[in-house]
Amino acid sequence: MKSHAVRELRLLHLEDSDLDHVMLLAHLHRGGLRVQSKRIDSEAEFLAAIQNDWDAIVSDYNLPGFGGLFALDLLKESQRDIPFVIVSGEIGEEVAVEAMRNGASDYVRKGNLARLVPALLNAIEANVTRRDKELSEAELSASRQRLSELAQHLQSSIEQERAAIAREIHDEVGGALTALKFDLAWITRHPGSDEVPARTSAALEQVSHAIESAQRIMHNLRPAILEQGLVAALQWIAARFEKRTGVACTLRTPPNVPALPGGVGLVAYRTVQEALTNITKYAQATQVGIDLSLAGKVISLEVSDNGRGFLPSDLAKPQSFGIRGLHERARTVGGWIDLSSSPSGTTLILSVPLHGAPVAASAARGITESADPSRWCEL
Ligand SMILES: Nc1ncnc2c1ncn2[C@@H]1O[C@H](COP(=O)(O)OP(=O)(O)OP(=O)(O)O)[C@@H](O)[C@H]1O
Ligand SMILES: [Mg+2]
């Protein structure tokens, strides 16, 4: 708040003399301030009054049975954050210094009331600046905390994913190859046996099994479908979602989608993947829409459902990292995520400005789940 912006002041005045109160108001009025004030002169009134909103407190130093420094202590105890200016005829240098040390914003002598308006405005402005600073420091530290939680989560996710991939390779691929080796060894030992055709077909089955497992692992690591462009990848993921969940999923894409800069396709794909996973886990939806659109040079990808929605507090669950991760991912390609939710559904939008000239349009059409090009070696 700039000092010239303070024109109307809510002022609590701790003062036993009505005359001094009126004089103070006259000074403030002459200084260009319109003031809503309340005069009080007892501890009980002070304790009750500071629960209300005031721009500043002006306090006389000496009150019968109650003093400015004591009021300052009470204010500190109450943890109310209101600028406190002492006005007094009798205050000496030492007492003034002590008052400032105890948290008074300023002191003004009754004989020099001309200084009151600037002193008050400065005190208020300093208070607002300090509060803003504290707020942004708190926001910064909360954001650092979130980032560090996310980094830890990512690290443990990587470890878990590695363990899962190792387990899958061991159990699925390794298991099939061991069985294959066993069958081949048997065939080598019994070349003329009648059982050779059966053993051969068992061996072929193991090979197919190993190929399927390898494809699944490869797809999870990096969906090869993305090589065919985002539209193809969205068609594939929408078809797979519908097949797995039985929930209708409508995909709308514009006729010509430019090939996207490196990274954007993967961010878009992972965003849709997380949104669909959340819909499967929480939404209880019966209808899902995925809309890709281009407006100006901003590409938007919207995933909406007609499910039960969530509350803002759900996003702050300590173990929930999906949406937090999406915000970070979007930022890596200069984009952002908008999220809105109500009891009739949730919409998540990824927007990414595309810089530079659009390049060749992707022509992917008619992609289904089985068309994922990570399916190689079809037997
Ligand atoms: N489409 C949705 N419908 C209803 N609730 C949702 C939806 N998407 C998210 N939520 C709510 O928001 C919370 C946060 O989602 P987020 O993806 O960040 O974390 P998570 O899914 O709980 O965990 P993680 O993604 O880390 O495995 C969820 O726990 C859920 O309560
Ligand atoms: Mg999630």
Task: Please describe what this structure looks like.
The protein is α/β, with parallel strands linked by helices and 379 residues long. The chain has three domains: 3-134, Response regulator (Rossmann fold, 3-Layer(aba) Sandwich), CATH 3.40.50; 146-220; 225-371, 2-Layer Sandwich (Heat Shock Protein 90). It is 49% helix and 18% strand. The chain contains nine helices and twelve strands. It has a five-stranded parallel beta sheet, sandwiched between helices. Strands 8-9-10-12-11 form a five-stranded mixed beta sheet, with helices on one face. Strands 4-5 form a two-stranded antiparallel sheet. α5 runs antiparallel to α6 and α8 (264-283) packs antiparallel against α9. Magnesium ion binds next to α8.
Read across the widest sheet, the strand sequence of neighbours is: 2-1-3-6-7
The number of domains is 3
Order of helices and strands: EHEHEEEHEHEHHHEHEEHEE
| CATH architecture designation of the largest domain | 2-Layer Sandwich
E-strand count:
12
Cα shape = elongated
- Distinct helical segment count: 9
User: How far apart are the first and last residues' alpha carbons, in Å?
Assistant: 73 Å
Give a nutshell description of this structure.
By secondary structure, the protein is α/β, with parallel strands linked by helices. The chain is built from nine helices and twelve strands.
